[in-house]
């Protein structure tokens, strides 16, 4: 029970006592938490303002740009239909004050200019066209916004922005529109940041677009305000970067908590400011009380935790490290502890368990190796029963299994799949047991009837190994190693990916060994000639990916060819 008492005492001292002291003193949050809360509030406020500002700008913009995608193309419509589309935009979107269509030569098209009569004076229309031409002269590739100006029409001097964009590819013409930001101005004027804070919108040059705080009129220079100055400096090197920042700016009574973000389409900055003294008003008074209580609690906790943690954590680290070694298969590893408490008893139990696992592992490995050796000997014996019928094919099955394993390694197959390839390669011709010897050993061309009998050996082999449970995973290699990639093979005429991958690999290895082995009707081919034949069969008889893997094997490892090549290593 000594360990339990030590842990209990440590929990009481390190957890309960500091928690009670901090809970009594911490009526609210620490300074860092309060500052973060204020900054997160500013951050969230700017995010919401940005979404609203983007919506004010994007909704009418999308409606205007939608003219470029009217059915049949805007510039192919009759003039009257074009006027109706323009009028529909002004009627549906009151934010759009004027809309002008220009030809590909950047000249205004007669009769294709409209404006809101009650919201825009004739002089405002002329200014709109002048701003539009300035945008066209910049060489447009997409939607471009002008600098924001104050409207001189019926809109009451509110901010107005002109947008222009090309239509068609190649360009058939251009469109330009004036959009009032009066709604955006009203929204920002009503926005309150605490009791004394405000939000405002500025363009990429640091000129005021709209906002609260009595900053001035549209177009006034506000680039000296610290948050905006910081933003403009950040954008000097990367003007198209989408920025976001929150933090404190300035010192003393001029210090503010501010957050800013950028509207990516127009490049405008949305800024929120609040005096630091209002944002962090309760921080300093709470900080003194919290630090006083935490200082005493931490001092007590640290001293006592240092005494108890050493006696507890060091043995636990040893257990963790040793357990990891055990989990990785290093059976027999031991924990050496001199303590005579529960940890010492646990170490003795752990060591006994580790030794027992080592003994069981050795016994299991012996049984597994013996079982697998028996499996392999059985498979080799079955293959030899086929190869022994024909001296020219002796060793063929073993070589096919070896080459198939190397191809499988190149294709990153698992160890289990490699073992299945080895067994499948060795057994792929087991069905030839059921083929008459006069056909199997015939040294001249087979007749059609004899060939029909020979083609039954995949199905015969499948039937032979079917009842053998541990060979069930290699039945596909035996049955389908004569299927062709183009679907003309046998016995099931499978095609492409429908042929099991292991069978495709065995088919490639079988063909390769047939080309590089001496037979009654051919001599062993040189390696280059054999690969030339396999390349010709790629995509017709053989899977191109498997043929490519075999080529990589030949280039990297070398393959046994009639005894004069380095043999490949069997899968473990």
TrEMBL record:
GO terms for cellular component: plasma membrane. It is a multi-pass membrane protein. Residues 371-566 form the HD-GYP domain. The chain crosses the membrane at residues 6-27, 290-308. Gene3D superfamilies: HAMP domain in histidine kinase (1.10.8.500), Hypothetical protein af1432 (1.10.3210.10), PAS domain (3.30.450.20). It is found in: Cell membrane. GO terms for biological process: signal transduction. Residues 310-362 form the HAMP domain. PROSITE patterns: HAMP (PS50885), HD_GYP (PS51832). Keywords: Cell membrane, Membrane, Transmembrane, Transmembrane helix. This is HD domain-containing protein. It comes from Corallococcus interemptor.
């Amino acid at each position: 029970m000594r360990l339990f008492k030590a842990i209990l005492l440590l929990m009481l001292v390190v957890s309960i006592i500091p928690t009670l002291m901090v809970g009594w003193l911490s009526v609210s949050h620490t300074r860092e938490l309060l500052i973060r809360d204020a900054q997160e509030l500013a951050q969230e406020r700017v995010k919401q303002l940005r979404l609203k500002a983007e919506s004010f700008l994007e909704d009418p913009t999308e409606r205007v740009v939608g003219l470029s995608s009217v059915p049949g193309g805007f510039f192919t419509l009759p003039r009257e239909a074009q006027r109706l589309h323009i009028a529909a935009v002004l009627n549906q979107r009151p934010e759009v004050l004027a809309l002008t269509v220009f030809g590909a030569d950047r000249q205004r098209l007669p009769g294709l200019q409209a404006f809101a009569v009650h919201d825009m004076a004739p002089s405002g229309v002329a200014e709109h066209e002048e701003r539009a031409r300035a945008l066209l002269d910049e060489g447009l590739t997409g939607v471009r916004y002008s600098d924001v100006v104050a409207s001189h029409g019926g809109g009451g001097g509110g901010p107005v922005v002109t947008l222009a964009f090309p239509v068609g590819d190649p360009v058939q013409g251009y469109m330009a529109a004036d959009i009032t930001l009066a709604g955006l101005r009203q929204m920002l004027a009503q926005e309150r940041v605490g009791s004394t804070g405000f939000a405002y919108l500025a363009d990429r040059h640091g000129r005021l677009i709209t906002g609260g705080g009595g900053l001035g009129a549209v177009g006034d220079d506000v680039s000296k305000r610290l948050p905006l100055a910081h933003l403009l400096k950040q954008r000097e090197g990367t003007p198209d970067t989408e920025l976001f920042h929150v933090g404190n700016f300035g010192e003393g009574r001029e210090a503010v908590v501010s957050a800013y973000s950028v509207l990516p389409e127009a490049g405008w900055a949305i800024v929120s400011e609040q005096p630091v003294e209002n944002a962090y008003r309760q921080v300093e008074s709470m900080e003194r009380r919290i630090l006083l209580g935490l200082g005493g609690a931490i001092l007590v906790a640290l001293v006592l935790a240092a005494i108890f943690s050493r006696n507890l954590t060091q043995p636990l680290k040893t257990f963790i490290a040793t357990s990891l070694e055990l989990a990785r298969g290093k059976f027999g590893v031991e924990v050496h502890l001199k303590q005579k408490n529960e940890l010492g008893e646990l170490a003795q139990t752990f060591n006994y368990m580790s030794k027992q696992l080592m003994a069981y592992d050795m016994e299991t490995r012996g049984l597994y190796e013996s079982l697998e050796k028996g499996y392999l000997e059985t498979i080799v014996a079955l293959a030899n029963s086929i190869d022994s019928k024909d001296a020219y094919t002796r060793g063929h099955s073993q070589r096919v299994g070896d080459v198939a394993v190397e191809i499988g390694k190149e294709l990153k197959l698992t160890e289990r799949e490699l073992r299945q390839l080895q067994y499948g390669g060795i057994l792929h011709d087991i069905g030839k047991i059921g083929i008459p010897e006069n056909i199997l050993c015939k040294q001249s061309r087979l007749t059609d009837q004899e060939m029909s009998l020979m083609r039954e050996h995949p199905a015969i082999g499948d039937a032979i190994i079917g009842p053998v449970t541990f060979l069930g995973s290699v039945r596909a290699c035996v049955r389908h190693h004569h299927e062709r990639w183009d679907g003309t093979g046998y016995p099931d005429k499978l095609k492409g990916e429908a042929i099991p991958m292991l069978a495709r690999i065995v088919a490639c290895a079988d063909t390769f060994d047939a080309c590089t082995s001496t037979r009654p009707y051919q001599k062993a081919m040189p390696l280059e000639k054999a690969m030339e034949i396999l390349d010709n069969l790629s995509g017709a008889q053989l899977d191109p990916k498997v043929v490519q893997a075999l080529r990589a094997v030949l280039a990297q490892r070398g393959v046994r060819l009639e005894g004069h090549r380095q043999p490949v290593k069997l899968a473990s």
